[in-house]
Amino acid sequence: MSGHSKWHNIQGRKNAQDAKRGKIFQKISRDLYQAAKAGDPDPANNAQLRLVIDKAHAANMPKKNIDRAIAKASGIGGAKFEEVTYEGYAPGGVAVMVSALTDNKNRTAAAVRSAFTHSGGSLGASGSVSYMFDRKGLIEVLRDGLDKSEDDMLMDALDAGADDMKATDEKFQIFTDPSNMTSVRDALQEKGYELDTAEVTMIPQNRTAVPEDKVKQYNHLIDELTANDDVADIYEAGQLPEDAE
């Protein structure tokens, strides 16, 4: 019995690590797509794409994943990818938006709907939850090893053109108008900051507490969406209990 329990615990930790890795790869894939789409798909001629590829290598992202993300942006292989957004409610009534890059909208829609249904959530119509999110530029600077006070960081961020900043124990989160994100990013990099994140994203206006009896279903939905190769981003307004795994 104890042997089974030990195996179960190890398997649980491995599954959690795999899920975390999947979310990291998903985010990098989206960044690769956006960098290649906005500029030249050849990294030799695209400095931003080279930076993201370096980040992908540092995260041990497989080369095939990197090539697939760039191919989506450049149309290599003849496939034409479209950006599609789905909106719905996760278990517990939590608003969720799903951004996908797909060459087959019917396939992707069916998979996203299935993920919501399997988890006890529901897929809604366009506009059903998007009004609960704000589109903002988000830049994150890790505090580990950074010799900057919160006040100094705030002043530098405002000088760079940011709108607001939030500080946690781990990082500074800097918010900008979407149209200013690139210029704020560049200004902070010129000041010598190493940025962990620089993107335009959807920020929930409010967080909805996920009921304890819905946590497992909620996590299952996010994990199933993350495992879908077509899904580029997941924006969710859930607040998990502090002791939830």
Question: Can you describe this structure?
Answer:
The protein is α+β, with helices and mostly antiparallel strands and 245 residues long. The protein has seven helices and ten strands. The strands form three sheets. It has a four-stranded antiparallel sheet with strand order 3-1-2-9. Strands 5-6-4-7 form a four-stranded antiparallel sheet, with helices on one face. Helix 1 (2-38) runs antiparallel to helix 2, helix 1 (2-38) runs parallel beside helix 3 and helix 4 packs antiparallel against helix 7 (215-227). The radius of gyration is 19 Å and the shape is globular. The two termini are 23 Å apart.
Given the C-alpha coordinates, what overall shape results? globular
Low-pLDDT segments, ≥5 res: 6-14
Radius of gyration (CA) equals: 19 Å
Terminal Cα span? 23 Å
Strand order of the largest sheet: 3-1-2-9
Helical content stands at 40-55%
Strand runs, count: 10
Q: How much strand content do the residues show?
A: 15-25%
